[in-house]
């Protein structure tokens, strides 16, 4: 049976929220303050199969639905459309679903390696954090995937359709975050090192 996403109405704290509760020494800033870029992909025509040798794939929104990046969730791009593909999943970035149902809009996943033969459709964004060390991208991905932030993103979504909602870049970038900054940043870095090892072990 396919695993279903956690309800946005869950009152349970995620492990990362429990570890990084607000601290008076952690300054609240906007998400945009730590973001270097937020890029949308391009939707192209494709076949409903995985990309073969010498082909490229376009991601499905389900590639990030359950909080873990699923590279196999893609479709083969038609040969004539390959030149239109623009944004590939990049290591240490976070891919976010900008358009989906009320429950799934804002679903996101951390990318632990480059995928040059895969590309994002226009329904997905790729978020890249600044390289000044102010925030760990893996830490940020856990925060954005928590029930609290999924609810905040869902509440900020708009759209007249009863089934599909959209989030705007300004709304997403305005989200308040409280990253553990120096000298407490060591806790965040420790978490990221442990998390990175976990990602590497799963990939082998």
Description:
The protein is of the alpha+beta class. The chain has a single domain (15-203), classed as DNA methylase specificity domains (Adenine-n6-DNA-methyltransferase TaqI, Chain A, domain 2). Helices cover 24% and strands 20% of the residues. It has helices spanning 15-19, 137-145, 147-156, 169-173, 185-203; strands at 29-30, 35-40, 46-47, 57-59, 74-77, 93-97, 99-100, 108-111, 118-119, 124-129, 165-166, 176-177. The strands form 4 sheets. The chain has a 4-stranded antiparallel β-sheet with strand order 2-10-6-8, with helices on one face. It is globular and about 50 Å long.
Classify the fold: give the CATH topology.
Answer: Adenine-n6-DNA-methyltransferase TaqI, Chain A, domain 2
Order of strands across the main sheet: 2-10-6-8
Question: What is the 3D shape?
Answer: globular
- The count of strands amounts to 12
CATH classification, class level: Alpha Beta
From the structure provided, what is the oligomeric state, counting identical versus distinct chains?
single chain
Based on secondary structure, the structural category is alpha+beta
CATH architecture: Alpha-Beta Complex
SSE series = HEEEEEEEEEEHHEHEH
State the end-to-end distance: 25 Å
- What level of helicity do the residues show? 10-25%
CATH superfamily: DNA methylase specificity domains
Count of separate DSSP helical elements? 5
Unreliable residue stretches: 1-15, 198-204
Radius of gyration: 17 Å
Number of domains: 1
Classify the beta-strand content into a percent band.
15-25%
Q: What's the overall average pLDDT, rounded?
A: 82
What about the largest sheet?
4 strands, antiparallel
């Amino acid at each position: 049976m396919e695993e279903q996403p956690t309800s946005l109405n869950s009152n349970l704290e995620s492990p990362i929220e429990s570890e990084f509760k607000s601290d008076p020494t952690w300054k609240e800033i906007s998400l945009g303050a730590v973001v270097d870029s937020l890029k949308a992909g391009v939707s192209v025509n494709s076949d409903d199969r995985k990309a073969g040798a010498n082909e490229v794939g376009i991601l499905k929104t389900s590639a990030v639905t359950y909080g873990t990046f699923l590279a196999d969730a893609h479709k083969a791009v038609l040969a004539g459309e390959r030149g239109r593909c623009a944004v590939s999943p990049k290591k240490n970035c976070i891919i976010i679903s900008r358009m989906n149902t009320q429950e799934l809009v804002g679903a996101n996943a951390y990318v632990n390696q480059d995928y040059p033969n895969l590309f994002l459709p226009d329904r997905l964004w790729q978020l890249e954090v600044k390289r000044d060390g102010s925030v760990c991208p893996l830490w940020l991905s856990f925060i954005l995937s928590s029930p609290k932030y999924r609810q905040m993103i869902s509440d900020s979504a708009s759209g007249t359709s009863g089934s599909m909602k959209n989030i705007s870049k300004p709304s997403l970038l305005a989200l308040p975050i409280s990253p553990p900054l120096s000298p407490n940043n060591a806790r965040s870095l420790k978490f990221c090192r442990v998390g990175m090892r976990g990602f590497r072990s799963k990939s082998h």
